[in-house]
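queue> pop job 88
queue> type: inverse folding (structure -> sequence)
queue> payload:
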């Protein structure tokens, strides 16, 4: 059985060490991925490993720009 692919995204803010793009800039791509039934996942980056609040904030940002609410 073939599994659906998963796409993992960073939702970092300017100034964070892993920052390389704005999640807002790929909103259309996120919606396309989600609408096709593929999994959209969150990678919190290097700063999130010890902050549940940071993970919640980044998860909210990712959901805001993907089709799944």
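queue> result:
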């Amino acid at each position: 059985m073939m599994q659906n692919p998963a796409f993992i995204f960073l939702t970092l803010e300017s100034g964070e060490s892993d920052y390389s793009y704005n999640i807002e800039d790929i909103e259309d791509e996120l919606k396309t991925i989600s609408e096709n039934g593929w999994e959209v996942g969150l990678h919190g980056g290097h700063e999130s490993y010890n902050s549940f609040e940071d993970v919640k904030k980044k998860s909210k940002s990712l959901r805001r720009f993907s089709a799944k609410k």
